[in-house]
Batch of 2 targets.
Target 1
Amino acid sequence: MSSLSQIKRPISGVGIGLRSQHIQEILTALPNTLPNIGWLELLADNHLSEGGLDVTQLDAIAEYYPLTLHCVGMSLASVEPLDQDYCRRIKQLAKRVNAAWISEHLCFSAALGLYSHDLLPIPYNQHTLAHCVQRILHIQDLLGERLLVENVSSYMTFENSEMSEIEFINALAEQADCDLLVDVNNIYVNQLNHGLDGKAYIDQLPLARIKEIHLAGYQQQDNFVLDAHNNPVSKPVWQLYQRLIEKRLAIPTLIEWDNDIPPLQVLLGEAEKAHQIMKNGVVQ
Amino acid sequence: MNLQVLQEIFIKQITQFEIDDDFLKQLTPSLSLSPEQQVAVYQNNVRGALQSCLAQIYPVCCTILGEGYFKQLAKGYIQHHPSRHSNLNDYGKAFAEFVLQQCQKRPELAEFGYLSDLVKLEWRYHQVYYAKSSPPFDFEEFTHLTERQQAHSTFQLAPCFQFMASDYPILSIFQMNQVSTTKKHEAVLLKAENVGVFRKQNRIEVFELEPSALNALNLIQAGSTLQAIVQAKLDDYLPQFIQQGWIVGTEK
């Protein structure tokens, strides 16, 4: 690794999620970087092996792009003992690629030694809140830095929820002193599936704690919408994004696309739209 | 229902594809989904993620069987093998054994006797892809050993090298069914092929091993000493294996 990667580089503007289908194209273009792409985000769980092809490719990319890590395996809300080995490997990866920050979802993914590899929702009540706060504080101690916690899409509502999702997230951010990653598509998916008010949700967010925004596309199913990350960002999501950006300009924004992955140019087109809204505040 | 019980029942339902009536009572209907449908969404998500994972690890098997049939086969595997690792790269190890059983059970798979070996080869390829790199064999350290120590040394194979024996032309089948291949319609030679898989710098090579090389590798993997390998008259392979990076160390 060169000396470039010893100093944490700032994250700004618009980024895209780095996916294996695009790695070769990105590597081939080096030392030139993609137009209007300020940074790349790694799905950290895909890069936890100690050797292999991925690691050498990542080292090359980390020389030229600021990187952030996005995790799915910390199981923030799980009642299982924390997987300290997982946290250790995440910390090592963050150090290796000089990641600007680490984010994880507000959900659980494992119990009884069984792993869902999905983002499972939790009831929003005081008991769950206290549990999540303690767990995030512990993780932040292990990582030695603040975590960005992301709101998730959900398809389930619990009888014993006592507060709204946004009330829960506000309390969590305050008590755990963590930062937030706001996924605008997830807010809209929950609006369609559960009837929450997306605009009101945006208006109640603690702006100073938002370090990153995610934008993605959902998929319409027969009677609900799935947060499939396999489509362009929808117009209502762009409008919610504009509402958020108007409140606090220039929050680093990431285009996520995880399934039916299109050519890199399509992602760059989505990134350009976000860039324009960030610059001009207008949904085209 | 406390948080721990709720999470335990939730995860069992979606990884073992059961429905628990007590859990359903903890849910409220959403705008468009009943409690049963809410659980079904997560069951589908879990199944879909693992099906995709298996299709990525076993692309040749998927090509041969067709995506639809492969998904059906994977569904059966997932039903009996929930993920027990946070890292999805560790999922699917027992698929070869499952496929072998299915080939014996399902008449439509009777002609695919080689399929289990093909799955084993693809698992090895997957392991090699993610294996840790090793420093090269330290000749200087070896030459400093006494003759007796050398004779009693055993050898370590590189994690990024794997091999297997097969009664089928498994390498030919693997190569002919690559997405990028132009050899799809060539006839398969009906001879058994033993296969090696090795990651050299940034490239994975898959190649045939002659029977005596396979015997030498089996001895090394079984922890045989240099003396035993010499007695088996297979020591001529050692310099070659070291030079190629397949052997990376010794244990005294």
Note: The radius of gyration of chain B is 23 Å.
Target 2
Amino acid sequence: MQMRKKTNIWIVVTAAAVIVEVWALYVLGASAARWRPAMIVAEEPAARALYEAMLDAARDAETLSYRSFCSGPDSGPSAYSVQLKKPNLVHVEMTNGLSTKVTMVLADGDRVRISWSGDRPFLKVDDFERNEPTQSNVYVDMSGSPADVAGQMARLGVAWSDLVWSPSVFFSGADEFEPYIDGIRLRGTNEASGEECDVIEVSYFKAQRMRHYWLSRKDHLPRRVKEIVRLAGQNHVIAEEWFRVEIDERISDERFAWSPPEGFRAWEPPELEDFLLKPGSDAPDFELPSISGGAIRLSDLRGKVVWLCLWQVGSPKCRAKMRYLRSLHEKTKDGPLAILGVNVTDDRRIAQTFLRDEAIAFPCVLDSSEEAAKLFAQGYGMKSSDAPVNFIIGRDGKIVDAWYGQDPHRAPAALQAAGVQDVDR
Amino acid sequence: MRAYELIRETYFRRSYIWIAHLSWLAVYGVFWWSFVPTKTETTGKFILVGSGLFLALTLSAGILGDDIASGRICVLVTKPFWTGKLYLFRWIGLSLQAAVHLLLTGILLGVLDLLTPKNSIEGLGVWLLASWLLFNAVAALSTSLSVVIGRAFNSLLLLVVFVAGYLLMNALMVLLRGEAGAGWLMAFVRYAWPPFELLRKFAGGEYGPHALTVGRFSLSHNVACVVHSLILTCVYGVVGVLLCRRQFSRVRD
């Protein structure tokens, strides 16, 4: 009897410990809160005024310099030293973790130049053989505006943690996601970098993306930015801490002058499109769950020309593309063209909300499993999450054309080659 | 009474124990005088590594294995009793030593701060708490290993594993960034090994920025961090107790 009582106590203690540990791991795993419609923020005029003051402060400044630490729970911190000067000059120095190797980024309006004091980052599209000759003492010199700097750095995998507050805000005085803001609200005051700040919460894309800005009462510029992106099954959090913020400090133009470091040579990063399936190759078949229930098999569409479009809710380009495809679908739904949307990243409820709001009726599959990601990464050669990605598949199941983004000339030509006429740009 | 004797015995087990304690206190003093750190974080990280990791490995070196190998265990355990007690009281002895050590560290640094005021001990208490939690986890793991690994090789093995784990984490972050499967490996290193990274974030107040809350301070994250650390210590301890039961038979020859 005594023995059984002891055993029962141990069972209860163990069960309690397991429950508490599961809770602890759930909280520490940064995926504690799933998206729900109540997360969409309602507009507050006072908060909107603070947000506008931030944009105005960036717009009115002639120069801006600051240092920042960007980090996420799953990545080490990246340290930035940023100097910006109107109309279009950028100087960024970045280090990862405790490394002393500096990545320097310079932009002057027409060109973006990136050089590494150590080895350049290894890209997903690199193979070791291809990587080795261009691993060290190289720089990138590409066309692009200052607004592209953050995007190019992210594309090249320069930093462990990318900038949330893009330098483009300083030059344009606008937030790239501003058209997608659901609402802004005040979250009180808080201290950041030793300064009293107003904290505002901005919700984008129906709360798929949230940003918290700690805006200094002194100059209305951020001292901390936290971004939460809600994807399938998890939240991606990145925090950016600002310090030594200087506005209209005199910065010499020489600071932004570029000359290739001695002994360095230019390196052309590989084009992502080169890795997509080539025209004439078979499109790998798949059966994936439809977002509206059931399953969709690609081979069931054999006999029709298929426009396969990989999209994400949080990408403005994808949203525009999906609207274009909606109108195309309305015109051609009884014709030889079948449009199939593929989403391998988003939370089901967020994706469903977007499709419902936009009245998108063409079929879409949604699968965030590793198998689905592998299918498109390896089978279709999609080496970047830079959506939208388009595949035009002929009636015989072979690829006619494949490309990233929105090329207005490409789709009509590809569809025509596949035998679908009269498609608008 | 037996419990008290066993706990007390961990203090006098080896003469180097006192030397280790005093040496580490001296190292903290020298560190302070040499660098006069302006941030608590600098001192805190040093204590976390020093006391949470290296002191734990030093004090638990051969804590059971050495005594089993030398036969000293027969002198300590003269009467039959639950074998897990030997493990438990030795671990409690280590934990108490760490508590006293960290208390003395706090007093030492407090005095030094009075002599060289730099405002650099604000929040030191949280770093000391984190160091104690890490010490407990490392000491429990090391003591468990000591049951089956002879002499002081338990600490040596753990030291190697710690260094390898640290390098693995960094390699994974650089080489496998964004790859499927890397997340699972990183999660294993983060949550199943002694929680150095978690406690560093806890003490450094880094959980707020990455939590889903607005403020810097996230109560749920900090509580979860402490709870995870304690439960991990218990898990290491349970493994040790089970190994003890296997090691010492109740059946007489």
Note: The interface with chain A takes residues 170, 173-175, 177-178, 180-181, 183, 186-187, 191, 198, 206, 209-212, 214-216, 220-221, 224-225, 227-228, 231, 234 of chain B (CB under 8 Å).
